[in-house]
Design brief:
The chain is of the alpha/beta class. About 45% of the residues lie in helices and about 15% in strands. Strands 2-6-1-7-8 form a five-stranded parallel sheet. The structure holds cytidine-5'-monophosphate. The site of cytidine-5'-monophosphate (C5P) has 13 residues, from α2, α4 and α8. GO terms for molecular function: kinase activity. InterPro entries: Cytidylate_kin, Cytidylate_kinase_dom, P-loop_NTPase.
Length: about 230
């Protein structure tokens, strides 16, 4: 069967990664969560004091340190879920905190950060057989992807899902704080100068506000079957 590239873009916390991960597992493709890569750079900035007290980034220092930031993914042998590594350390849980969520979008506006990560993402997908999710996969990383999906849902529903997810993990969470974070990331992602979040003209739109995970999974598999 021919191998293709599947680009899944869309707003924050709209379930892209769950859909993408499930499809990749089902069809035997590699799954890459590009948001995890921007989150890992953000965690690096937090741990290396690259944020000023006012929340701005020490850009020149980060620029010189980009070559020291190595991000990779490995499958957890037990759960078969991808785990994010930053310079050899498992950072999967540490990149999902509210602190990282609230600092990641400004980091993702920096052109030199995007260039470095986009280059790595293109390298990861060069043999196809990949499902990649993010904000600019269908527009910038793989503009020729054979299947492009753009996912959206109302901000309240996305915040509710994120809230339930954090609660299920036993983490403290405030619904209002999460809703604010989701809306703020949407705003920054859509309005940044470099690779703003937008639907590629040839992407299929999916509003999953009222869909179950099983329904989304079936819908995506049908799109895949049509594309291969
Ligand atoms: O997908 P996730 O919500 O984990 O992504 C975290 C942040 O990384 C997004 O809010 C966005 O600012 C940034 N991002 C991006 N381009 C991508 C993936 C994520 O700018 N391809």
């Amino acid at each position: 069967m021919k191998k293709i590239i599947i680009a899944i873009d869309g707003f924050s916390s709209c379930g892209k990664s769950t859909m993408a991960k499930d499809l990749a597992r089902e069809v035997g493709y590699i799954y890459i969560d590009t948001g995890a890569m921007y989150r890992a750079v953000t965690l690096y900035c937090i741990e290396h004091n690259l944020f000023n007290a006012d929340g701005t980034i020490r850009e020149e220092e980060l620029k010189t340190q980009m070559q020291d930031i190595h991000i990779s993914f490995r499958l957890d042998a037990e759960t078969q879920r991808p785990v994010t590594y930053l310079n050899g350390a498992d950072v999967e849980n540490r990149i999902r905190t509210m602190e990282v969520s609230s600092r990641v979008s400004p980091v993702a506006t920096l052109g030199f950060v995007r260039e470095a990560l986009v280059r790595q993402q293109q390298e990861m997908g060069k043999d196809k057989g990949i499902v990649m999710d993010g904000r600019d996969i269908g527009t910038v990383v793989f503009p020729d992807a054979e299947l492009k999906i753009f996912v959206t849902a109302s901000a309240e529903i996305r915040a509710r899902r994120r809230y339930d997810e954090l609660k299920a993990k036993g983490e403290e969470a405030s619904f209002e704080e999460i809703l604010h974070n989701v809306e703020e990331r949407d705003r920054i992602d859509q309005n940044r100068e470099v690779s703003p979040l937008r639907k590629a003209d040839d992407a299929v739109l999916l509003d999953n506000s009222n869909m179950t995970i099983a329904e989304q999974k079936e819908w995506l598999k049908r799109q895949f079957d049509k594309a291969v």
